[in-house]
Amino acid sequence: MTEATPKPHPALEASRVPEHDQPRARRNRRRGRLENGQQAPGGGERLLTAVVLLACCLAVAVPFLAVISTSISSAEHVNRMGGFVLWPDGIDLSAYRSVFAGGVVTRALMVSIGVTVVGTILSLVASAMMAFGLSRPGSLGHKPILMVVLFSLLFSPGLIPSYLTVKQVGLLDSYWALILPGLVSAFNIIVLRSFFMNIPQELFESARIDGASDWSIFTRLVLPLSKAVLAVIGLFYAVGYWNAFFGALIYLSDQGKWPLTLILRTYLVDNQQLSTADLGAGVDALPPQPALQMAMLLIAVAPILFVYPFLQKHFTTGMLTGAVKG
User: Fold this and answer.
1) Mean pLDDT per 10-residue section of the chain, whose length is 326 residues
2) Which residues pair with 127 in a beta bridge?
3) What is residue 88's DSSP assignment?
4) pTM of this structure
5) How far is 260 from 104, CA to CA, in rounded Å?
6) What distance in Å separates the CA atoms of residue 77 and residue 308, rounded to the nearest whole number?
């Protein structure tokens, strides 16, 4: 009785297979190539990429860390470091207590919050309704109105005509001057219109058969399907209203109605000094000016940093889906 010949290991058998019989992806990996045929980066290229990315991250993180550290440092440490603190020696919130003491900064913060909330809601409603009307082929005058929207996207009216228009309608020195001139954006309308046009027409036809009106189709069918793109467009409007300062600079003469960004420009960019009268009656000792300025800067940036992570997941769905069809 003859002994059975032992079978070789599967790995040894695979190594004996001719090269032309092996999968192409395996041969490319062995030769240092990607599956699309390009040469895979070597160790030096990967190291250079890592160094560049690390440098970019540090360029963003270090100034932001300095803003936070300066705003929470004690007065002695800020003065000792010359106004630029990279790492605090402790936590001192006197700058934030002074900013929120009820003075000009607190009032400007309330103005910015009110303008942002009201402006974002009105802009979303107006943009969604206008985009829905422009997306319906049978709507009255949708082509001329669309041409006007595209024309406004390419050409701006200019500063003097805008100021004269706001003056003639009686919006000077009014909060509405911060909202109505930029109520709708042509770019956002085009994105919303493209998204609405991508909704299957069968849904509209079935709603028509059930007796739904245009308003019912818009509110009960279109808006629930457009939460992602509305979240993105709403964030665009909110960031625009929150960061706007030029409209307040030319339309508002009453400093009590200035938003936070204009106050920040006045005391940070123009380098004016904050006094105890500006901060409120409850402030006895004035913190260092760099600490106050960095606290104001962080307060202006914090709301956007807080809202953005909750809406980030909608960016890809909202923007790419709304930009597929023009």
Assistant:
1) 50 48 52 54 78 90 85 80 78 81 84 93 93 83 84 83 89 90 89 87 86 87 87 89 88 87 81 70 69 84 80 61 48
2) none
3) -
4) 0.76
5) 9
6) 33
